[in-house]
Amino acid sequence: MTVEQIAGAGLMVLFLADIFLTVLYARAGTGLLAPRWNQLVWASVRGVAGLFGRGHSSALSFGGPVIVIMLIAFWALGLTIGAALIIRPELGAAIRPSSGGTPTDFMTALLVAGNSLSIVGGGDYSPHTSTTRILFLANSLIGASVLSLMLSYLVQVYSALRERNALALTVDLMTGCTGDAAQMLARLGPDGDFSNATSELSNLARLLAMTKEAHHFYPLLFYFRFREPFYSVSRFSFILLDLTTLIETTLDRQQHSALVRSAPVVSLQSCARLLLATLDRNFPTVGEKQMQSRTGDFASSCAAVLETLRRAGIKTNPDAQRYADQRGQWEPLVRRVGPKLGYDMNEIDCRRTREEGATLK
Fold it and tell me: How far apart are CA 11 and CA 157, in angstroms?
């Protein structure tokens, strides 16, 4: 076995290990090559999208599908090059066509490798020794197995994407399409009646937990970005974190203690933070120096929240400082994750955006 063939076998093992860790082991950040390749493609998509000006949001929406195609091509090319390095020294002797001479250049080896990874005996070249026949059989099994794995993997990714979008749309509709957690809280307890709120929040917590685990199992989900901001992971996570913070810091704890202390509220808050933390660890997020700055005057924000709840007939006992302290614990996560996906805080924190707009007027 030549050095070239050893290098080819090593390359195939490397790419197969990357496919195994990405598709079968299914843990965010465990791939050997795929995470870095995906980040490189995403950076390229962002660079191209920046040329479109106002249309950058539409351009970025192609990022996820482009990464899927490029990842499949990357794995296919890596396996083909590895197989070609193994096959090239055998051309003209153990591997040759049925008639005529046999070129021994690398491009011919790539052609033969591609055929052997797809169909045994495909093309004009065929193996003529036991060793090369076993090689062609192994390549065929590898090609068929990788194709099957990729198809099933993509089905799971797009199923998880649909469920994530369903959760995002549900949260947006529960805010009255305003993106305001105060509006969502008012709708959960009309006239101060939160009897159904616990079950509603429990359903949301279950869907959020499924979404969090989907991002942990299928890192490709990180790169699927939609033009509509309400589909953003950052936005619906922000709304749910803001909602649970408002429940804990603005509602009258005596009258609404059952909701304030309920398990779904804790679950929603913890799971939303876990989801953002997963993205923060495994997605190339924005550093502290690049984070969008935004003043943290929560007094006017609390005033707007209290007015919304008052109109809904909900009794409150607000603690503005506690609200600000709790928000300060999770908002940096949103600020790191959101901008890297092409969203700014004006699209995520809708209540503050409206308040700032009203101030400017």
Answer: 27
For residue 71, the model assigns a pLDDT of: 95
* Rounded-to-10 torsion of CA 236, 238, 239, 242: 160
Residue 97 β-bridge partners: 125
pLDDT of residue 293: 44
Q: How far apart are CA 266 and CA 209, in angstroms?
A: 12
173's tokens: 């509709």
Cα–Cα distance between 127 and 137 in angstroms, integer?
Answer: 10
Specify the pLDDT at position 352: 67
C-alpha span between 181 and 239 (Å, rounded): 5
Q: Going by C-beta distance under 8 Å and a sequence separation of 6 or more, which residues neighbour residue 315?
A: 192, 251, 252, 255, 256
Handedness of CA 298, 324, 264, 256 (dihedral sign): negative
**Nearest-angstrom CA–CA distance, 170 and 173:** 5
Q: How far apart are CA 288 and CA 297, in angstroms?
A: 20
Torsion of CA 157, 159, 163, 169, to 10 degrees: 90
256 or 120: which leads in pLDDT: 256
Candidates 247, 228, 244, 250; CA nearest to 172 is 228
Residue 120 has pLDDT above 70, yes or no: no
Residue showing tokens 């059952």: 258
pLDDT at 292 over 50: no
Average pLDDT of span 87-101: 82
Q: Where are the strands (E) in the chain, listed by range?
A: 95-97, 125-127
pLDDT at 295: 43
Structural contact between residues 247 and 260, judged by C-beta atoms closer than 8 angstroms: yes
pTM greater than 0.70 (yes/no): yes
Average pLDDT (209-215) is: 94
